[in-house]
C-alpha cells in the first residue's frame, strides 16, 4: 500500500522542487538576464531586409529610402530580420526541456511584433541554445508616411547588429520538463520581460 501512495504523495514536493530550480531573479550586466533561472545570454539582429533589398550596413539610409521609393508599386513593403537569441541555465542547474515559447518585441518607431517559437528547446548549464526568430512587418500596410523612419530603423539594426535602446522583449515560456516532472506553462513561470539599455545591456523589467 505504501509503495502505491508514494508517487502521489511526493508529486507536489517534486513540482515545487522543479519550480524552485527555475526560480529566482538575478541580473548580470551585459552578460545576460536570469529570470526563473532562464538565462538570456545574447540578443542580436541579423539578416535585415526591406522588400527585396538586403540592408547593407554601409549604405546610407537616405540612399536606401530613395532606392525603395523609386521601386514601389505593389503597395506593400515588408521589413524582415532575424532575431538571434541565446538561452541557457546557470552552472549546476539540471537540464530542462522547454516546449517552445511566445514572444513579443517592441521597438521605438515600429509596430509591436509577436509570435511563437514552436520547437522544443533543450536548456542546460554547459552550452547555450542558439535560436533564430524571424520577425517581419509591412510598412505600407499601416501608413506610408512611416517609410522614412522605418528605413532608418532597419539601417540602424543592420549597422549595429542589435536592437535599439528602449526596445523591450517579452518571453512567455511553454511547458517545462525536468526531474521527471512537467511544469505547465503559466504555473510559476510568468512572462519574462527585459529592456535594451543605452549600451545594449539587458535590463529586467518588473
What's the structural blueprint in terms of helices and strands?
Layout: H1 2-21, E1 25-28, E2 32-35, E3 38-50, E4 53-54, H2 61-70, E5 78-88, E6 96-98, E7 101-106, E8 113-117, E9 121-123, E10 129-138, H3 147-160, E11 168-173, E12 176-178, E13 181-183, E14 192-196, E15 202-204
Antiparallel strand pairs: 1-2, 2-3, 3-4, 3-5, 5-10, 6-9, 6-12, 7-8, 7-11, 11-14, 12-13, 14-15
Helix pairs in contact: 2-3
| Share of helical residues | 10-25%
Please state roughly what percent of the residues sit in beta strands, choosing from under 5%, 5-15%, 15-25%, 25-35%, 35-45% or over 45%.
35-45%
Report the uncertain regions. 1-6, 21-35
Rg, nearest Å: 21 Å
Oligomeric category:
single chain
The structural class is alpha+beta
Enumerate how many helices there are, as a single number: 3
Shape: elongated
Biggest sheet character: 6 strands, antiparallel
Strands, count: 15
**Mean pLDDT, as a whole number?**
76
**What is the H/E string?**
HEEEEHEEEEEEHEEEEE
Distance between the termini: 47 Å
Amino acid at each position: 500500500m505504501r509503495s502505491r501512495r508514494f508517487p502521489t504523495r511526493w508529486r507536489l514536493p517534486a513540482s515545487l522542487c522543479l519550480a524552485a530550480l527555475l526560480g529566482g531573479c538575478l541580473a548580470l550586466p551585459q552578460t545576460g538576464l536570469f529570470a526563473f533561472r532562464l538565462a538570456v545570454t545574447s540578443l542580436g539582429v541579423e539578416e535585415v531586409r526591406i522588400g527585396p533589398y538586403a540592408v547593407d550596413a554601409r549604405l546610407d539610409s537616405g540612399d536606401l529610402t530613395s532606392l525603395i521609393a523609386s521601386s514601389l508599386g505593389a503597395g506593400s513593403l515588408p521589413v524582415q530580420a532575424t532575431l538571434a537569441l541565446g538561452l541557457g541555465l546557470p552552472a549546476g542547474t539540471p537540464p530542462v526541456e522547454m516546449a517552445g515559447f511566445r514572444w513579443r518585441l517592441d521597438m521605438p518607431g515600429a509596430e509591436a511584433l509577436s509570435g511563437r517559437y514552436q520547437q522544443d528547446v533543450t536548456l542546460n548549464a554547459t552550452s547555450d541554445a542558439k535560436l533564430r526568430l524571424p520577425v517581419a512587418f509591412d510598412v505600407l500596410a499601416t501608413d506610408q508616411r512611416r517609410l522614412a523612419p522605418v528605413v532608418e530603423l532597419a539601417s540602424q539594426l543592420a549597422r549595429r547588429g542589435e536592437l535599439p535602446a528602449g526596445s523591450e522583449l517579452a518571453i512567455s515560456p511553454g511547458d517545462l520538463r525536468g526531474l521527471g516532472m512537467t511544469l505547465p506553462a503559466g504555473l510559476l513561470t510568468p512572462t519574462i520581460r527585459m529592456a535594451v539599455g543605452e549600451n545594449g545591456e539587458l535590463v529586467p523589467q518588473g
